[in-house]
């Protein structure tokens, strides 16, 4: 795991931000207004969550008229998935060694 990924994990650690990222992954690019409706808070709070995700490199946005359209940066999540797989393999290997030790 890289310390450089800490901001991404931090950004995704908030349930509201994670909910927004999941929606963007499932539904594709969406305007701020649509994303803010899924949260139990104000549009301003949703915008702040999206700005945190943007600062961490998880999402990007572009203006379309008066609205800002948000999209996931897939490479930010692909890198995390790769690192989580590595971590999972390490834990699996440790658990296998523990099981072997206990069974012997």
From TrEMBL:
Name the InterPro entries for this protein: ArsR-like_HTH, HTH_ArsR_DNA-bd_dom, WH-like_DNA-bd_sf, WH_DNA-bd_sf
Instruction: Recall the GO molecular function terms of this protein's record.
Output: DNA-binding transcription factor activity
Q: Which Gene3D superfamilies match?
A: Winged helix-like DNA-binding domain superfamily/Winged helix DNA-binding domain
Q: Which Pfam family, any one of them, does this sequence belong to? A: HTH_20
Question: Superkingdom of this entry's organism?
Answer: Bacteria
Q: Sorted alphabetically, which SMART domains does this protein's record hold? A: HTH_ARSR
Q: Which residues form a coiled coil?
A: none
Q: HTH arsR-type domain spans which residues?
A: 1-92
Q: Which NCBIfam families match?
A: HTH_metalloreg
Which protein are we looking at?
Answer: ArsR family transcriptional regulator
Q: Which organism is it from?
A: Mycolicibacterium fallax (Mycobacterium fallax)
